[in-house]
Amino acid sequence: MSWPADYHMHTPLCRHAVGEPTEYAAHAVNIGLREIGFSDHNPMIRDDYDDWHMRQDELDEYVEKVQKARQDHPSLQIKLALEVDYIPGHEDWIRELAARHPWDYFIGSVHYVSDSWDLDNPKKISEWRGRDSFEVWSVYFERLTKAAESQLFEIIGHVDLAKKFCFYPQQDCTGLFRTFLDAAKQSGAAIELNTAGLRKDCKEIYPSRQILQLAHETRVPITFASDAHAPQEVGMNFAEAVQLARSAGYTHCCRFTHRKLDAVLL
User: Fold this and answer.
1) Distance (Å, rounded) from C-alpha 192 to C-alpha 159?
2) pLDDT above 80 (res 193)
3) 3 in any annotated domain
4) Can you name the residues that pair with 265 across neighbouring β-strands?
5) Which of the residues 11, 27, 74, 169 has the least number of beta carbons within 10 Å of its own beta carbon?
6) Distance from C-alpha of 68 to C-alpha of 172, rounded to nearest angstrom
7) How confident is the model at residue 196 (pLDDT cuts 50, 70, 90)?
8) Is-cis flag, bond preceding 12, omega within 30?
């Protein structure tokens, strides 16, 4: 079968991935993918913000690495993108990044639920233990909703990342999910089916079946993502992701070129 595009993968510039973009592209060709997109973590507004984003002076190098992958693998469609952290107050910085290169799409992701806590960071898992999970999920989805409303992103990344370490609220979160999905629909943003969740403690694709079914009801489009941090992770578990999408009612996914959406059969 023909696999959907893998639109979420990283490079060593983020300091927690291995393998050059051309190696990711080679693996994509080997497993039969026709299109991929690199979306490494954006430079932050300050280089000392954390230790898992590329530095500001590495952005051009990142683009050059993607261009080399394109040259090495001309039969493969390779898109140029960024995974961009949405943090309230950083909108102008995101617009500045958007103007620097001819990007095909931006993935808007929420990792930070405060100025200092990136909730998916294994080094900070102890932060979860002293907090009410529903309050954390509420802040997370509030920021995710603002990311969708900002219209700065074509795709919203791993939309229930808060489940990574299995800190689940006892309360019903359906209202949080619906508010976010309504914002995504209104702004025209897609959400991704991100298989990296299967490699984490939660052992589940991002997002959950419940959220994906709500997304289908809300008519929010989808993309697919391995969130690869190594070449062999490209396209990983896509069979499960496609099955999940179809079981939720999806018949199409979308691709992006120069930040314009094109729906394609799944």
Assistant:
1) 8
2) yes
3) no
4) 252
5) 74
6) 47
7) very high
8) no
Residue 50 lies in a domain: yes
Residue 224 and residue 236: Cα distance in Å, rounded?
A: 11
Q: Which band of pLDDT confidence, cut at 50, 70 and 90, is reported for residue 2?
A: confident
Q: Is residue 7 part of a domain?
A: no
Q: How many domains does the chain have?
A: 1
* Of 102, 112, 57, 67, nearest in space to 82 by CA: 102
Confidence grade of residue 22 (pLDDT, cut at 50, 70, 90):
very high
Query: Distances in Å between the alpha carbon of 262 and those of 139, 224, 252?
Result: 32, 14, 10
- Side-chain half-sphere exposure of 6, counting CA atoms within 13 A: 32
Residue 86's φ and ψ, nearest 5 degrees, are -90, 120
User: Which pLDDT tens digit goes with each residue over 97-117?
Assistant: 999 999 999 999 999 999 999
State in Å, rounded, how far the first CA of the chain is from the last one: 10
Q: In what order do the strands lie in the sheet with 77-85?
A: 35-41, 77-85, 105-109, 155-156, 190-194, 222-225
Mean pLDDT to the nearest integer, 45-55: 97
Q: Which amino acid appears at position 28 of this protein?
A: A
Residue matched to tokens 């578990």: 237
What does the alpha-carbon distance between residue 180 and residue 165 come to, in Å, rounded to a whole number?
21
Residues spanned by the domain of 213: 12-265
Would you give the DSSP letter of residue 40?
Answer: E
- Whether this prediction's pTM lies above 0.85 is answered by yes
Q: How confident is residue 1, by pLDDT bands cut at 50, 70 and 90?
A: low
